[in-house]
Every structure is written in C-alpha cells, then in structure tokens.
Amino acid sequence: MIAPPFIDLPQCRCRPGTVRLPGSKSISNRVLLLAALCEGETEVRDLLVSDDTERMLDALQTLGVAVTEREGIWKIGGCGGRFPVRQAELFLGNAGTAFRPLTAALALSGGDYMLKGVARMHERPIGDLVDGLRQLGAEIEYLGNESYPPLRIGKGEGAREKGKTPLVTSVKGNVSSQFLTGLLMALPLTGVETTVEVMGELISKPYIEITLATMRRFGVEVRRESWQRFVVPANSRYVSPGVVYVEGDASSASYFLALGAIGGGPVRVEGVGRDSIQGDVRFAEALAQMGAQISMGPNWIEASAPLQGLQGVDLDCNHIPDAAMTLATTALFAQGPTKLRNIASWRVKETDRIAAMATELRKFGAVVEEGVDYLRITPHSSLLTPHSGIATYDDHRMAMCFSLMALGTPLRINDPGCVAKTFPDYFERFASVTQAAPVIAIDGPSASGKGTVAARVGKALGFAFLDSGALYRLTALAARRAGVAWDDEAGVAAIAAALQVEFGEDSILLAGEEVGEAIRSEEMSAGASQVAVLPAVRAALLYRQRVFNRFPGLVADGRDMGSVVFPQAVLKVFLTASVEARAERRTKQLIEKGFSANLALLLQELRERDERDSRRAVAPLRQEAEAKLLDTTALSIEQAVEQVLAWSKEALR
Ligand code: DC
C-alpha cells in the first residue's frame, strides 16, 4: 500500500461518542520483552499492533523466540533469559521502546548482536544506557557516532561474569527514562543482586512505574529507595503470569479527551481509567485545569467542554511528557497563553518536538516562545488557516495533535501514515467522533447555470459558495499576465500555487486588483479550460478549494466537486442542459451585458469545451454514480434552485 502524502481535514465538530483505545505502546513492548525473557509461555491480549510493536516482535523472532498470533491473541514462548539465537543483526526502525530495552537485555544475556535503526534513531542518544551497562561488564561498541546507535553488543559469552558479588551501576535520570527502564528490565539477567543509582533528577517517573508494575507482573519485585536507588534482588527470575491484558494507550487517549474538551463532547475513552498504571492518564487533570469537565471510572475517562471555554495554563509536564504534546494544540483553543514546562525530553524523541511543535503552531497565527525545556504558546485571536500542509516530522504524535486543529479550521496534514507507529487507524477513529462541515457539490458543463443555482442555494442555506471555475480562470489570467503559456504545466502550476486571491461578497481580487469581469471573458473561459487539463495545476488548486470546507457549510460548483475535491459531499448534483439551451442562455447573458454575441460560434466553443472538460485524463467532467441529475433545459432558474434546495434539506437532515 502506498502511503498518502497528505490528508485534508475539513473543519469538524465534535460528536459525543466513545472510543475503544488501542493497546498501550509502552506496556506492549515491555510485556513482549519480559514474555520473551521469562520461563514459560505467555498469552498476551489487547496487544497494540503498530510499527513500534512490530519492530519488537520482529526482533524477538530473529532472536529465536517463538511468537504466534490467532485472532488477536499473541503467544510468546519464553526463553528463560537466554535467547536461542546468539548472533544476529536487528533493525529497530525508530522504536525507542524496542531499541533501549533490547540493548540492555542483549548486553546482559551474552551473544554477538548488531542493533540498528532509521537515521533518526541514530540521532537519539543512548550513551547513558551504554555507560550503565558497561559498569556491569557489558561489551558495547558504537558503530557510528560515539554515544549513538548503531551498536555492536558483546561477543561470544562475553558480557557478564557469573558470580555472587552484588553489582552496582548508575545511570543519568534526566535525559530519557527509557535508559533506566532498559537497565531495570535487564537486571534480573545478572543473577546477582544489582543496584542502579540514578544520577540527577529522574524525569518521566510514571514510565518507571509502568516498568516496575510490568516486572512485578512477571514475578520480579524491585526495591525502590525513593527515586534514586533501585535494587533487583539476587536470583530474581522472570516467570510467565500466564495471561496478560495490555491496557489501552493513555497517550492515545489524550487526543480524544482533548477533542471533547475543545469541541463539546462528551467523548469517552475506554481502556484506561482510574486504575491505570500509566502516568499519562494524568493528562485528564491537566485538561481539568484548563477548565474541561472530566469524569472517570476504573477503565474509562470522559471529557466535555466547559461552558465558558478553556483557559490557558502554566504547567510542569514532567509527569506526562507524551500527552503534554496534546496540550500544545489544545492551547490554541484556550483563552490566554499556555506554558508547558520541564519538557526537555521532547528534544530527543522521534524528532525535536519542541522545535517541531513551535514551527507548526505558528502556522495558525500563534505566538510561540521556544525555550530549552519549555514552550509558551499564545493563541491568535482567531485561528488562521495554514497556507500549506502541517509537517509531521515522521512523528506520530505531531500528526495526531494537529488533527485537533480541524475543530477550528480546515487543514492539511502531511504524511498522515506516520500515526502507524502507535495508532494505525487513528484517522478513522477521529472521524467516528467528529462531524465534518457539510458540502453540497454541484457539477456540470459550462453555462449550465450551475453557478447561479449554486450561489442562490448557498445564500438560502446560509452557506458559503465556492465557484471553483473562478480559480481556473484566475490561474489562466495570472499566467497570461506573467507571460506563461497555458500549456506550460510546471509554469502554470507554480502560478496556481502562488495565486493571491481574495473572494469578497461581490468581488474577486487578484493580487489586490478587481478581476471579477476580466476572468469572465470568452478568452479566459478558453484559457481556464486549457489550464484545467494539467494535472499539476489541479493538484496545486486542490487544498485551496478544500479550505472552503467550513461551518456552517459550503455549496461548491465546478466539474469535479463531487468526484475529487469533496467526495464526502452530503449531496452531489449533476446539473446540465442541452448544449443548444446553454448556448442560447450564454448569448442572452452577453447581449444583456452589452457585448456582441454569435450564437453559432458560442455553440461551437461550448461543444469544444465540453469535449475538453470531459475527455481530459484527470478529474474529467462526469456524473458521479451517487449524483442526482438535474436537467435544466426546460426549467427556470427558480425551479432549479427549488429542486436543489429540496434535495439539500433532505441531505442535511
Ligand atoms: O465553471 P467555469 O466555466 O467557470 O469553469 C472554467 C473552466 O475551468 C472550465 O472549462 C473547466 C475548468 N474547471 C474545472 O476543470 N474544474 C472545476 N472544478 C471547475 C472548472
């Protein structure tokens, strides 16, 4: 399957609803590793199936661990702390939750392994973990840059001396809690009492809680002395608990809770709640601080919007590093600034999330101050619609966070497939608790009267009106003025992409100049029809048209409104008339405006344009299967409007 380059979201409203969450990434990958390291077989239910867990599953299988799946139930054959395959090369993509713990486990289990990832993984530091493992006797070599993957681990039986002497190691606590997690999960492999001392403040403590709870589930109790010392007792062994249920992903819950908090709700997530072991459930408290109404049960959380709107907050986000990203986009819907503090770890995640977030938030007009470890976000008084797509930096959370912006404005999100890291069907779930602003699509041939009908229907419904043909006409006019030939695809597409257009009530401004009349000439009709056959021009105008898809609704007229631009339209009308009737109407129109007109010539031109519009390879004019046919040859404009209004009211019910 080819990943789509972008997804265009119309402006949406939140619909009350319930979302069953996918399994937690953090818990899934911990459970998989411990199930592989333990004695006995483990049945894992509700496992997250996503890129990151696939990296872990692939790696475990490469290491000789038996993995089977039937109807969503996974069975992992534990290897009792010694992987059957003693020499292997592992590719772990950009999955930090696979890379760090596997590094530790392999370093302490003996063997000869090479661990690699994607380019970004090789920019994410791992030196602190390697130092901690080396203190325990592990042999680890950097294959690229010092302190970064790729790594070569151990040789032969190398890494640890079997003995009885207790071991002590240390690890920095303030870069990534995944280092401590990786170490802790591997320590039972030493066989002796092993102590980890944490240097500096430990960040993201809730993730360590998940680690300790998961180890406990597999029979290993870690002694924790405040958050500075962790002792794994001698002879600790992982034993299969039989069946493990993976909790829903609390970080994934944040998007739906925010949706309810911003857009009304209530939106309920199922799979996490009061009894969750994941720290990110405390995201709900942060939302409550912004004013959202939150209720919670043992395994569900529900959020609704406050009557008086959300308020900006100043928050230490150390305890909810991943979910805090969701607060950044939520902040654009709040009154006053929001400051997210203590988020330095964002800089070493899938991307530099502080920089990425600041750059993309600014596209909505927000003023964003970016510090080493904080973001201060002041929303624009009214949300701006970005001119181009939101970049996602191969970071699933960027894509999911920015989907929330659809509650305020239509937008384009680039590379939406990146959500597969933790939430492959995110956008389908998003659609299940949102409702897009309605579109009525009216397509048909030139001079069929669809423009007049569409404008009147729009007015009657209180909807905006998009005359998409005007965009092609404007492109033709702008190209002519710039001296670019109408068949120069790249040249015209560049002009289309950069058009400076303002549509007013009764005016169309091109680079500030009124061109409403100029684009209606027969010459520009022909030019529009010519530039409209060029695929790059159509692609350049697509997003420009889709940004009209906002509340209360849109009536759009053109050739491909129902087929390409707004395939989700609630009503599609194919409005036509015989070519003779259209030529007569056009003649009358021209004469009324004081122009001369030749019926025979107009008839011929219309036939040529019909031919070109319906024969072109991209988005040809045709009646969609679900479109309602309205032949206006024998109808007055009023009759046509009345018919479309009747259909519209039915479709909008
Ligand atoms: O609707 P109109 O006559 O203003 O359109 C001018 C030209 O633009 C027409 O020949 C076909 C093209 N067009 C198009 O290809 N797709 C649209 N959605 C609208 C117009």
Describe this protein's structure.
The chain is of the alpha/beta class and 653 residues long. It is 36% helix and 20% strand. It contains 21 helices and 32 strands. The strands form nine sheets. Strands 26-30-25-31-32 form a five-stranded parallel sheet. A four-stranded mixed sheet has the order 3-16-18-17. Strands 5-6-4-15 form a four-stranded mixed sheet, covered by helices on one side. It is elongated. The site of 2'-deoxycytidine-5'-monophosphate has 14 residues, from helix 14, helix 16 and helix 20. 2'-deoxycytidine-5'-monophosphate binds next to helix 14, helix 16 and helix 20.
Assembly status: single chain
Shape: elongated
Radius of gyration: 30 Å
Q: Characterize the biggest β-sheet.
A: 5 strands, parallel
Number of helices: 21
Uncertain residue ranges: none
What is the helix fraction of residues, given as a range?
25-40%
Strand content: 15-25%
Q: Give the ligands present.
A: 2'-deoxycytidine-5'-monophosphate
Strand order of the biggest β-sheet: 26-30-25-31-32
Mean pLDDT: 94
**End-to-end separation:** 36 Å
* Tally of strands: 32
Structural class: alpha/beta
Defining key terms:
32 strands, 4-stranded mixed sheet, single chain, binds 2'-deoxycytidine-5'-monophosphate, alpha/beta, elongated
